[in-house]
Design goal:
The structure holds 3 protein chains of 3 kinds.
Chain A: E1 2-7, E2 10-15, H1 22-29, E3 48-51, E4 54-57, E5 70-72, H2 85-92, H3 102-115, H4 121-127, H5 139-163
Helix pairs in contact in A: 2-5, 3-5
Chain B: E1 8-11, H1 15-25, E2 29-32, H2 38-43, E3 51-54, E4 64-67, E5 70-74, H3 79-84, H4 86-91, H5 93-100, H6 105-110, H7 113-119, H8 125-132, E6 136-141, E7 144-149, H9 150-153, E8 154-156, E9 159-160, E10 167-174, E11 179-187, E12 194-204, E13 216-224, H10 234-240, H11 247-259, H12 271-293
Parallel strand pairs in B: 1-3, 2-3
Antiparallel strand pairs in B: 4-5, 5-10, 6-7, 6-10, 8-9, 11-12, 12-13
Chain C: H1 14-17, E1 34-40, E2 46-52, H2 54-58, E3 62-67, H3 68-73, E4 78-80, E5 86-88, E6 94-95, E7 101-107, H4 110-117, E8 121-126, E9 155-162, H5 164-172, E10 176-187, E11 196-201, E12 208-212, H6 217-228, E13 235-238, H7 254-266, E14 270-273, H8 276-282, E15 285-297, E16 303-313, E17 342-350, E18 357-358, H9 367-385, H10 389-396, E19 405-406, E20 412-413, H11 418-429, H12 431-443, E21 447-456, E22 468-469, E23 472-473, E24 476-482, E25 488-492, H13 501-513, E26 520-523, H14 541-568, E27 575-578, E28 581-584, E29 587-592, H15 594-602, E30 617-621, E31 630-640, E32 645-656, H16 663-682, E33 713-717, H17 735-751, H18 766-774
Parallel strand pairs in C: 1-14, 12-13, 15-18, 16-17, 25-26, 32-33
Antiparallel strand pairs in C: 1-7, 2-6, 2-8, 3-7, 4-5, 9-17, 10-15, 11-12, 11-14, 15-16, 19-20, 21-31, 22-23, 24-25, 24-30, 27-28, 28-29, 31-32
Helix pairs in contact in C: 9-17, 13-14, 14-15, 16-17
Classes of the chains: A alpha+beta, B alpha+beta, C alpha+beta.
């Protein structure tokens, strides 16, 4: 069957078997290997990507189900050449070691911050509770997402202050 | 990673279209909603349907509404939407309690209420929650809709009354004011299937003095993962009706619920522990439901 | 030597991972590449009557089907294990564990390969499965390894360490003896990336290139040569980015060899990536030690001696990876961190119908098992004596002035200040306050526990004369090249799987040579480009390869001295190294940096003896001893006795790994091990039923801790430099995995003390905790009836 999927803003039309899993479509068909897989039972979350506006475990979704929809992967996190604050946070806070769970963690972090710009540590931990990391013990992942939240708040304040006209450095 | 066997795929554009497709492709066709119950089974090749009928486009089944004294939940409602619904939470806190402990936030974005119910895993949480609320399932077929009590919905492990040419479209719950509900679950880890879980819904009768405990006008107890018939504890409910709303009553109700379930020893725990949980969690769910009924929680 | 390069530098490797540009084995796609899949035995023990591959071979997308018989014709049906046993690559006579490899399909795509597996028909004749390690030693038990000549039972080895007579005497004279059986259940490292390989056999050149998830690429190369008969210089092993190893990726698995044969047969690259169930059911598990511990003490709490008897379940083939002379690894360090008079242990290894392995999952060669035993025994002693477990430990810990200390089983601990670490942990935790809180909660019917673990690790294997794996000594090499413009390339034999070597090793060289870490590139993982060594596991990278990096950098620095002297027309003795340059004694402004010297070395400058036109150097580092990191951990838990649920409220960890090159990376290593402890103590176990069905074959049942089960980790540090390591560093990678499980278990049992619970085995699931309270403990390793 033919499917048309927009991935990181680029439209792809491919002929696939109905049973092709979205993660394999992304990795093998499109060559976007930044998304990974790590289990058989939808438990580990290494495969998390965005489908339209929400994260999904792409190992549990058929490529066919993405027909006509938008997919966002780790390769689509950065804006042009500019890293997303979540990516920066992971690098600043040692939020990754082997890097295998990292794409999924970052995409969930981005989704969380889009809906909840000031999450508590508990809320961050809950947001990533469906994803396993074997390297970091989670603490620095939480710190990384927290870092991104703080960075966006600071730059948002700066942008807001600028917009307010000459009151940069004012009320924070 | 394991991958499914070959199958054909159709995308439904309406409920009617879905029913037509189900009729055309027969009993070896399965409905695909969120897929988070079905696709894992297919990857392990425990399920090998010949055709999948994708109903993710059926916006007409995606709603939560209060209408005519009922909470109506469309079968395609995602778990996350039910968890986020202020209406659902306000009337039936048990649904929020249960959704909060189903899978994980990412899975909840895509998995559906109807999908989980139709998968009919004997440890499925919403089955117990809806049983406690004595909900009603609406099933549509070629000849129109029929309703089935939630407690009659399941016929065995992984089996429901939804026939091959039918589609679960809605779950409705009558709203009776003055009640409170809660869900208590024990898992080996967050996101795990329950080792045991209990849901309780309780209504007090109007007359109670300030110093008295009040009497229970009606109660619903739902149980999952412990082999309770119809995911419920009918004997415990009978006991509760008319009894004073006290800790002793709840403990006794728990014991009755525990006696009347049929847990099996497995990886999650031995049968005696699960039986204990049935009782313990029934009592705790009742306690929390009561506090909510009284506006204390 | 300037140590400014040490510090919490952000990691160089992160740049590619945060962009999704890592290169893991499954990311590799070569032209014409085929995909392999393994058919595995559904039975734990059975004779193979026949295998019919006709239908599979007829599948339109299938290019080849390989069976044990076709491998036997190439002399490859069996391969040596790292423990000098043999293991079936593809089964020929029998299958000996559920999940054992039976056939290999090579197809055009991975979905077809998976489909074709179902077309292979195997006729099995079931045999009685041997699942219980104790029953495996019964005289009438089914003999699993009838492939080994003259074998009439399932015992693999008997081994002992220590002085039995001295220990017996100490026990006989002791006021108090406490004995307890305890199980360290079978667990699995479960790195997030499963194991796999892409094998590309070039028919024309006869060169094999294999990209593989290997923690020890050079050892793999030598073994592939020995197994396949290919000449070693025609084999290139590349470990690209690896998504976690934790010991799981040390051994050679049948799938790698099948991929090599598949490529040889088809003339095309063949990729084999296992799925998660294969990883959990067939690759190297960890632990499975059935232990009996005994501790002897005086009435006032002086620990006199320890004894242990262990039944070690090795699975169907002895694939435990540890130095040859130590069939039970370093278990005999079970003497722990205490002043003991005597100790003695016996370990019996046994075959069962389960997957092979045993040494994995950050165990430092069985030190996880040893520390669990001693720390549980110390707690049991504290309970028996009515003493506070911190006080009992403090009373018995080795004192700094006692180092170097030869423990009763022969280990020479070279350095440590144990009381200081324990005191630091207690202060961080607010120990006295916690005990007060515990008392008041108990009055209210609330149950919290405070558990302590103190551990000494012995890591960084190891001295050549004592330690080898399959005859390959555990010495590792490092090559350092300095380009004319002063940029450096360090090639090392160890293999990062996330530990940050590209950063920390650059920091080591940068510190020695006054360079910026950005000017030092670290090359690893490709046997064509790196010196020989035994790889990364057992916390040996910093301890051995890190030492090699420092040593080779110092060689370069000494060569630079000679050239600098020639540049300045002075004698080398006129120069001293300070602030990143060779400086004239008494006139430090006259100096030459490494960059300046490098250019000079490549120029027409007349070079004296000792330098040949560049500064490059190489070394093979033979560690004189292990290093001995240590730590004190305290875990606070809250237990709900009505449900058995355990919540880890706090975890305090004070670690001492000597000099720390990059504290952030060190802390990250500790964080991981602490999560391991929570997981193993509370939820992880690979169990089997009586038929040998593996019940932990997916992440639905082999549960791993998430961010919700892990508390914020509270870390402290002490620094006791290693006296022999060139930069005073010790290993750290496994310390927390070693030290944390007993802290969690001790904590839960402390919480349950009012119920009279003295011991319960891991994993302390809600069911296990509740059952312990009822006085009817649960057994983790075998399914309940």
């Amino acid at each position: 069957m033919q499917i048309a999927v927009s991935v990181n803003g680029t439209e792809y039309t491919r002929v696939v078997e109905p049973r092709l899993l979205l993660i394999h479509f992304i990795r093998d068909e499109l060559g976007l290997t930044g998304s990974h897989w790590g289990c058989d039972t939808s438990n580990c979350g290494a495969c998390v990507v965005w489908l339209d506006e929400t994260p999904v475990k792409s190992c549990t979704v058929l490529a066919a189900m993405a027909d006509g929809r938008r997919v966002r992967t780790v390769e689509g996190l950065a804006n042009g050449g500019r890293l997303d604050p979540v990516q920066q946070g992971f690098a600043q806070c040692h939020g990754l070691q082997c890097g295998f769970c990292t794409p999924g963690m970052m995409l969930t972090g981005r989704w969380l911050l889009d809906r909840n710009p000031d999450p508590s540590d508990e809320e961050i931990r809950e947001a990533i509770s469906g994803q396993v990391c074997r390297c970091t013990g989670y603490q620095n992942i939480v710190r990384a997402i927290r870092w991104a939240a703080n960075a966006e708040a600071a730059s948002g304040e700066a942008a807001g202050a600028e917009a307010a006209g000459g009151e940069a450095g004012g009320a924070r | 990673m394991q991958v499914p066997a070959y199958f054909e795929y159709e995308k439904a554009t309406s409920v009617q279209h879905a029913l037509t497709l189900l009729a055309r492709f027969g009993p070896e066709a399965r409905v695909l909603a969120g897929g988070h119950s079905l696709i894992p089974m297919m990857k392990l090749r425990l399920a090998q349907p010949e055709t999948l009928i994708d109903i993710n486009g059926l916006a007409e089944l995606d709603y939560i509404a209060v209408d005519g004294g009922e909470l109506r939940i469309g079968a395609l409602t995602r778990h996350a939407q039910l968890l986020a619904s202020a209406q659902a939470g306000q009337h039936f806190a048990i649904l929020h309690d249960a959704e909060r402990v189903i899978a994980d936030p990412v899975v909840r974005e895509w998995g559906t209420v109807g999908g989980s119910l139709c998968q009919a895993d004997p440890s499925e949480d919403l089955s117990a929650a809806f049983a406690a609320l004595k909900a009603t399932m609406v099933i549509r077929g070629a000849d129109g809709s029929r309703t089935v009590a939630a407690r009659q919905f399941h016929t065995g492990p992984y089996e429901t009354v939804v026939a091959p040419g039918e589609l679960l479209t809605e779950i409705t719950i009558a709203i009776t004011p003055g009640g409170g509900s809660a869900y208590c679950k024990v898992g080996r880890r967050v996101g795990d299937w329950p080792v045991g879980a209990a849901g309780a819904a309780i209504w007090l009768d109007g007359e109670h003095s300030e110093h008295g405990a009040g009497r229970i006008a009606d109660a619903g107890i739902g149980l999952t993962a412990v082999g309770a018939e119809h995911f419920s504890a009918a004997a415990a409910e009978v006991f509760l009706r008319g009894a004073p709303a006290t800790a002793e009553t709840f403990a006794r109700a728990g014991r009755i619920a525990a006696e009347h379930c049929n847990p099996v020893s497995d990886q999650r725990g031995p049968a005696d522990y699960k039986r204990h949980l049935a009782g313990e969690l029934t009592a705790r769910a009742l306690t929390r439901a009561l506090a909510r009924a009284r506006g204390e929680a | 030597m300037s140590q400014q390069a040490y510090g919490p530098l952000p990691r160089k490797e992160d740049a590619r991972f945060i962009r999704g540009k890592g290169m893991f084995v499954d990311d590799i796609a070569l032209p014409g590449m085929l995909h392999g899949a393994i058919l595995r035995s559904p039975l734990a023990h059975a004779r193979i009557v026949s295998i019919d591959t006709t239908a599979a071979e007829a599948h339109p997308a299938v290019e080849a089907v390989i069976t044990g018989q076709s491998l036997a014709e190439r002399g490859m049906a069996w391969m040596p294990t790292l423990a000098r046993d043999v293991q079936a690559v593809l089964a020929t006579d029998k299958v000996r564990f559920q999940g054992q490899e039976v056939a290999f399909v090579v197809a055009r795509d991975r979905y077809s390969a998976r489909d074709a597996l179902e077309l292979i028909i195997v006729d099995y004749e079931p045999l009685p499965p041997v699942i219980d390690a104790v029953a495996a030693l019964d005289p009438g038990a089914s003999v699993i390894r009838d492939d080994l000549p003259g074998r009439d039972g399932n015992k693999i080895f008997d081994w002992s360490a220590g002085d039995k007579a001295a220990a017996d005497a100490v026990f006989a004279g002791a006021d108090v003896v406490v004995a307890r059986d305890m199980l360290y259940p079978r667990v699995h490292p479960a790195p997030l990336e499963t194991c796999g390989a892409v094998a590309d056999m070039d028919q024309v050149s006869g060169r094999l290139t294999i990209w593989v998830t290997s923690q020890a690429p050079h050892a793999h190369r030598t073994l592939y040569a020995m197994i396949t008969g290919l000449p070693e210089h025609k084999i290139r092993v590349v470990s690209p980015d690896i998504g976690g190893g934790f010991g799981n990726k040390v051994p050679i698995y049948p799938g790698y060899l099948c991929a090599i044969v598949g490529s040889t047969l088809t003339g095309r690259p063949v990729k084999w990536m296992e799925d998660r169930s294969e990883n959990l059911m067939s690759t190297s598990f960890a632990r499975d030690y059935h232990m009996h511990g005994e501790i002897a003490a005086t009435r006032d709490g002086t620990i006199l001696g320890l004894r242990a008897r262990v039944l070690a379940d090795h699975g169907a083939f002895n694939g435990a990876a540890q130095p040859t002379k130590f069939p039970a690894g370093f278990f005999h360090i079970f003497t722990g961190s205490y002043q003991l008079r005597a100790a003695y242990c016996e370990v019996t290894g046994v075959y069962t119908n389960k997957a092979p392995g045993g040494v994995a999952y950050s165990c430092s060669f069985r030190i996880t098992e040893a520390v669990y035993l001693v720390e549980r025994m110390v707690d049991l002693l504290a309970r028996e004596l009515g003493m506070d477990p911190a006080e009992l430990r403090m009373k018995n810990l080795l004192r700094p002035e006692q180092f170097p200390f030869t423990c009763p089983t022969g280990w020479v601990y070279d350095s440590g200040d144990y009381p200081r670490a324990l005191a630091a942990a207690m202060e961080l935790a607010g120990y006295a306050e916690l005990r007060r809180e515990q008392a008041s909660r108990r009055e209210r019917g609330e149950y919290m526990g405070i558990g302590i673990s103190f551990f000494t690790e012995g890591v960084g294997a190891g001295p050549r004369k004592h330690m080898d794996i399959l005859g390959l000594a555990m010495a590792d090499g490092a090559d350092l090249r300095i380009h004319p413009t002063g940029k450096a390339v360090l090639s090392v034999s160890c293999q990062t799987q996330g530990q940050g070597h590209e950063t920390t090793f650059a920091q080591i060289v940068a510190a020695e040579l006054g360079l910026s870490p950005d000017d030092v590139d670290v090359v690893h993982g490709d046997t064509d480009r790196t010196p020989f060594g035994l790889g990364t596991y057992g916390s040996r990278s910093t301890a051995v390869s890190g030492a090699a990096a420092a040593v080779v950098a110092r060689k370069v620095r000494e060569r630079a001295r000679i050239v600098a002297a020639a540049m300045m027309e002075l004698s080398p003795d006129d120069l001293e190294w300070a602030d990143g340059a060779w400086r004239v004694r008494g006139d430090p402004e006259q100096a030459a940096t490494i960059a300046q010297v490098a250019m000079a070395a490549h120029s027409g400058l007349e070079l004296p003896d000792g330098v040949e036109g560049h500064l490059d150097a190489e070394t093979v580092y033979n560690p004189p001893n292990l290093t001995f990191p240590f730590g004190a951990y305290i875990c606070v838990t809250d237990v709900d006795p009505g449900t058995g649920e355990v919540r880890v409220r706090r975890f305090i960890a004070v670690d001492d790994c000597g000099v720390r090159i990059n504290p952030t990376i060190v802390e990250g290593q500790v964080h991981r091990g602490l999560a391991d402890g929570v997981g193993m103590a509370l939820m992880q176990a690979i169990a089997f039923d009586a038929e040998g069905n593996c019940l932990g074959g997916s992440f639905m049942d082999y549960l791993l801790p998430t961010a919700m089960e892990c508390p914020p980790w509270e870390l402290g540090v002490t620094v006791t430099p290693s006296p022999h390591h060139p930069i005073g560093a010790k290993g750290i990678g496994e310390s927390a995995t070693v030290g944390s499980p007993p802290a969690v278990v001790n904590s839960v049992l402390d919480a349950l003390a009012p119920f009279g619970v003295v011991h319960a085995d891991m994993p302390l699931t809600p069911a296990a905790v509740w059952r312990a309270i009822q006085g009817r403990p649960l057994r983790a390793d075998l399914a309940m009836p």
